[in-house]
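Structure request: AlpA family phage regulatory protein, Vibrio coralliirubri.
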Amino acid sequence: MVNSTINLATQRFFISDKEVRETLGISQPTLWRWTQELGFPKAVKGMRGKRPYKEFIEWAKERGMI
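Returned structure:
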């Protein structure tokens, strides 16, 4: 029970557009285009510029980017 609480406390839920761009070495227009055309995870409504971290990692790994 304690371990699951610790994991939830340290798990990351969101990544900012800035972090995405820096991690992948891309521009904002490229990020927008990937979101529109390649299925890159969309920003969470009400959290401008924040995307689901887990979805980002999965998407990037599937494409060999990280």
